[in-house]
Amino acid sequence: NNMLHIHAGKTYEDARIVLRILEVVLIQRRKKITQQRLLALTKRLSVLATQLLHNGAVGALSVVRRVMQLGMGADVLLDVDSSLGQGIYSPELEEPEHCNAASSALWELTLLQRHYHPAVRMVAQHITTNDNNHTSQMPTEIAKLDSVQLFEHFDPSLVMFKPAVPPPPKNISGMVKAKEDSTFVQELEKSVHATSQPKLSSLHSEILRNFRELSKERRK
């Protein structure tokens, strides 16, 4: 249950330890874990991914993806039919064995498919479509690295965003300004024709004329 207390704040460095441990428990020692515990830890990894920065999220999802790849029955968490489990899912229980994770689903993947980082979106999409065996469709830096390696590879503390953020168009500020000016002119023209007060209409017309002259000078 302590997994759910890890987030992008002061407990963030603990995420590295959690990923390393769950790699061992869910992957290397998978034959020694019960199905109920497997589902519970997989579900908690999915929840954890929503609480971490992008490097932690992609690391957590990589463990989920590998669990799905190994065909350990965790794909039942992709089924939204909660009648498959027994009872109600209780995520607050400290003992994952008895939390009835089979009664839940990996709802977090819907959110993670809209994540700001492309790597997180990609892995979440692969898990959701149950397309986890087609690693050739994923970049090597994601498909071949384990969770801790991904955590370190995409570490934002290095002040590097991977992949690099493309720069905005050079004239984007001018484009935005031109759009704002056009909208302002349209609204002003409407007010000139709509108002029933001559003085106000005259004032709006004067403002509109001055604004158009100013716009012409800008374009020169």
Summarize the structure.
This is CCAAT-binding factor domain-containing protein. With 220 residues, the chain is an all-alpha fold.
Helix content range of the residues, please? 40-55%
Tell me, rounded to a whole number, the average pLDDT.
80
CA-based gyration radius: 27 Å
Q: How does the overall form come out from the CA principal axes?
A: elongated
Q: Given the helix and strand composition, which structural class is it?
A: mainly alpha
Q: End-to-end distance, in Å?
A: 66 Å
Q: What is the beta-strand fraction?
A: under 5%
* Largest sheet data: none
- Low-confidence residue ranges: none
Q: How many helical elements? A: 9
The helix-strand sequence is: HHHHHHHHH
Described by its quaternary structure, the protein is: single chain
Task: Give the beta-strand count.
Answer: 0
GO molecular function: chromatin binding
GO biological process, one term: DNA replication initiation
InterPro entries: CCAAT-binding_factor, Nucleolar_cplx-assoc_3
Organism: Graphocephala atropunctata
Please describe the topology of this protein.
Layout: H1 14-28, H2 35-49, H3 54-69, H4 108-112, H5 118-128, H6 140-143, H7 147-153, H8 172-194, H9 198-219
Describe what this molecule looks like in 3D.
This protein is mainly α and 220 residues long. The chain has a domain at 3-154. The chain contains 9 helices and no strands. Helix 2 (35-49) runs antiparallel to helix 3 (54-69), helix 3 (54-69) runs parallel beside helix 5 (118-128) and helix 8 (172-194) packs antiparallel against helix 9. It is elongated and about 85 Å long. The termini are far apart.
